[in-house]
Sequence to fold (490 residues):
Amino acid sequence: MAAARACRGPAGFSRVSKGLLKDIGVATARFERAFERRLYPDLGLSRGVFFSREAFGRDTLVTGDPTTMVADDIGPALNRAKPVRDFIAGFPVSERSKADLIGLYEQTRDPLPGKSADDKLKILKSTSYRDHLLKICGVSEEAANCFQGRTLDYFALGADAVPAFDAMETGYPGFKGLGLESDHGADEPYIHHFPDGNASIARLLVRELVPEVAPRVARARRMDDVVLARFDYGRLDRPGARVRIRLESTCVRVQPRGRRVDLGYVRKGRLHKVSADHVVLACFNMAIPYLMPELAEAQRRALALNVKAPLVYTKVLVRDWKPWVALGVHEISAPQSYHCRVKLDYPVSLGGYRHSRRPEEPICLHLVHVPHEPGLNARDQARVGRQKLLDTPFDAIELRIRDELNRMLGPGGFAAGRDVAAITVNRWSHGYAYTPNSLFDGPELSAAQERARQPFGRVAIANSDSLWSAYAHSAIDAAHRAVGEVLKAG
Fold:
């Protein structure tokens, strides 16, 4: 999920995105039944916040979080939230900080008296959420620290680098007294989720393009069948086929030559060359200047501005989830921990895939870590975070996983040495696409975004990067635009 990143759900998708999803067999209404939103609430489970001893003096898990967040997969109507005062009473902070935090949720006094709505919006867009808490709301450092890392999962940035305006739109507290209208609450619940995430969309696309890659099924069953469908990868790249998909082939050069384009790629250690009438580059913006050094300097600089944020998504298979039920929690935010979010897997059952429904059954946990460096601008945080990630061996990450799960869930009876069956660490040096940030970017960025995606000769530029938005529907829209440019070029 990922960034304040216009996450409005399929209802807000373009006609093109909706049309493609329908064409490949995705019926978004099916998720209303496939995603079992009541499963965790009916077991008495709520969202919680974990405070680490390193940052707050002692390890403490507090359940019943009342914060209403964008991209909430359960929804405020079903979440078993506590009253604000009861929730904050469990925080391991001073009484003064508790009072400050309660005020963030309940205060109706205007913290910017005498300012017009337009002036308030300008202030919120030029002030970080952390500074909003400290300097406008007047809370203590200790209270602000309770939110410092909670923005990481959604923005890939801490509260020091997230505009207060974006925090307001995302559902964080501290804005009630401003009297401003917000789009928060207009979002659909985050339920449009395959068991394997967007991998199913990619698989559906491939099966549509290369039907023989997997067994044919009735059109009405394509969405249900794809999760467990067995793909024959040997059929992806066959001579004479209308569509050929060549795996393990890294493009290293794209060179327009009049009405042709030469491409160089490396496969199994060997350099290969092909030539094409047209090319669509659907890759990272920042990689394109290295593939096409002939690009004008202005376009090269514009493409390089899209610095992707590093992410680590970890899946931990556990033998059961009874400790979560004992603690009364299905999702944990951790504002100053290595993993900013730890949760039970999304409760989706689709086709032959069945999600764990009883606490005695095995389940996957989803853990999120965002390497970053507070105090820097958004792009530099991503650059430093990427270096941190590349310098961290997998065994060090595993130690963090086991340690934090023990500390968060140990009071409920969890023991990593006994309960962890398997760990998969997905380490993405380049994760979320860069999204314009009003703290660091001015109005000139809009022109740079447009310049970055301009065709070069007979090469068009796609990928969600070209729309500066880390979402599948953005990638679809970008592809549609790029193919249109190819057709126009003739």
In short: The chain has 21 helices and twelve strands.
